[in-house]
Amino acid sequence: MSKAIVGLLIVALECIAAPALALETCDACKHLACLKDKLQNLSEWIAGYGNLKAQLAVKVPQAFFDLTGMTQPERIAARALVASQSDEYGREVKKMEHDLTMSACGPTGSVTADTDPITCEINQASVDNGRSHAVCRELGERFQAHEDFHRAVCLKRNETTYTVPPDTDKRYGILMTMAGLAAEEMAAHQRDIDAIKPIVDKLQKHCGNFRFPPVSLRCVNVDAPGAHIETEILVTGKVCGDAAGKWRFRNSSVYTEQIKGVSNRVLRRTDPWHDMECVPARGEEDLRQDAIYRAGMEAGNAGGMSCTYEIGEGKLPDITLRNYPIRMCRGAKQEDIHVEVERTERCEPD
Questions:
Q1: How far is CA 207 from CA 5, 267, 283, 347, in A?
Q2: Which of 25, 36, 94, 339 could link 212 by a cystine bridge, Cβ 3.0 to 4.6 Å?
Q3: Cα–Cα dist 322/341, whole Å
């Protein structure tokens, strides 16, 4: 954040929630509402600074004055013109601080972080305080990144200097106007949006309530003239809150036994819902489970099923069931079954 230049230090406050030390990543579904609120808040700050810039530019349209090519009286006049808008800038920023609050990040509060627009010095204590009050790590990191941006811009403009004879001390040659400060804040807030939005876009793909309709897993034991024995398992899944986590599964089994002259029966059973965690596809846990199930298949005494997820380019998570049939199933081999996931409005009860 930047302070106004002539004598009056104005801090544009960064409004964030202030509950606890940010130790965990923002890349978690529980932070999605807060992050979305933050993006909206940043957009409102940009719009507010945009309106303020237009308002100030009516009188002083320049973003800055280059003092190096001016006479001393012209420099004095330029500084006076900038100073005349300092109070207006300060009032409007304070009004935005009051109006542009957030509600989805817990108890609301205001934490200040600032960078001197003349010396380019960051108030590190204010940045550290802001980081400690953010709800998650990436939001806290934006405090430092935001001020680093202001410092970099400040250092760049301070490369331009001039001297006033007979004094040989160099003076900063670029004088920012209030409209210029507003424009710089707009750019800094846009950088914050650019950093946070990819996290929100990713979370929106797998955060929420999802389900998939029954998927058929068949095991044919006998298929010969006059005899057919098979088991079909219909697997249904659902999750509340995060597709990259613990799903609820239910298996419905249909056992069919048709042996000419001996038996003709169909047995049906529906198991209760149970938990199964979907793990990242081709990740360490997926590879570990795959090795265990394949070893069981080779031994001929075990089979099973695992669940993996991927967050791709689509709007829904990619869920794959890995089926490991037991050896007694004819033509038994491991197969991956991609399920058609759909989003649901509410968390479906068992």
A1: 45, 38, 20, 12
A2: 339
A3: 16
